[in-house]
Amino acid sequence: MRLGAHAETFLERLAFRLNLGPKPLADTQAAFQFARIIMAASKAGLFEALHDGGRTAQEIAAARSTDPQATEKVLDALLAHGYLGYRDGRYKLNRLSRKWLLADSPHTVVHKLDFQEIEWRWTEGFDQWLYDGTARDMHRTLSPEEWRRYQWGMRDLSTAPAKELARRAPVPKGAEVLLDIGGSHGFYSVELCRRHPGLTATVLELPEAIPIAVEILARESMGDRVVHRAGNALEDDLGVGTCDAVLIANLIHHFDADQNLRLAQKVARALRPGGVLLVMDAMRIDSPADADQPSRRLGAVLDVYFALTSTSGTWSVEAVHNWQRAAGLSPLRPIWLQTMPGAALLSAVRSN
């Protein structure tokens, strides 16, 4: 997935090809301004105001107690970029906004947009980090309310890829026991259990994260098959031969190479013969020579982000496979996710 400005017309494509237009401005000013427009519109409930049908800008402003003129300008910006429809003087939801930007949609990302206000502040640290290289480990600075926003945001982020992962993951036939390490809201486990009727899952999560995670999980009505257990996978014994599958989703970017290797070794011991380790995360480039690979572009950006906020960063496919091999597992071919561009499912099997 290529980030930033994209040419739509022949003249725009020509201007980019000939380097006539200032692409850095399109990638920065236009991008961050429109990002804030979407976030502000979501927070103010402008999309929710259109839940039951089209309305004028004045009607939307009255319903959400916003300024009429400012509301109309925001609606027009959203309309111009494909986030709304317009007919007979009324703005309306389209397929995009109805799927992703309504709080009651099963695909909602409203909570993630809310958490991005916090992430926005974090990225102001890029300037200093570039000089001192010191990670801020922002998760330790979160207040209880920010932890709530963070976990709900991560639940939204899992909405699309969880179903795809469940459909494509090489879970052993007849699998009964899944360990979900750092799974927070448990939605990946929920979808895997729905896909595999005989499967039950335990989500191993830090104690401070569990109260909100349990609240989020409760709405899935899977409490008989997906449960939480307080612990720390880097410190706790995971047992020997207790699991048919172990899932580590969106977590390895928080750990350094030694921690990820030790975790892979623990998981290998915990797996039963024929069991599988499922690692899902954004993948970075293996080397600068691979920078033009579309599947690595987002991972390269997130590598910078996580290096600032969580002391580590994204990892390459080869790095993950090396940990899996060193732990005595046999890596399978990467599965690149369609619903989370730049992310891959890297599975490895314990030999029989």
TrEMBL record:
The keyword Oxidoreductase does not apply. GO terms for molecular function: O-methyltransferase activity; protein dimerization activity. The keyword S-adenosyl-L-methionine applies. GO terms for biological process: methylation. Keywords: Methyltransferase, S-adenosyl-L-methionine, Transferase. Residues 31-101 form the O-methyltransferase dimerisation domain. Pfam families: Dimerisation, Methyltransf_2. InterPro entries: COMT-like, COMT_C, COMT_dimerisation, SAM-dependent_MTases_sf, WH-like_DNA-bd_sf, WH_DNA-bd_sf. Residues 142-308 form the O-methyltransferase C-terminal domain. PANTHER family: O-METHYLTRANSFERASE CICE (PTHR43712:SF2), PUTATIVE (AFU_ORTHOLOGUE AFUA_4G14580)-RELATED (PTHR43712). This is Class I SAM-dependent methyltransferase. It comes from Microvirga aerilata.
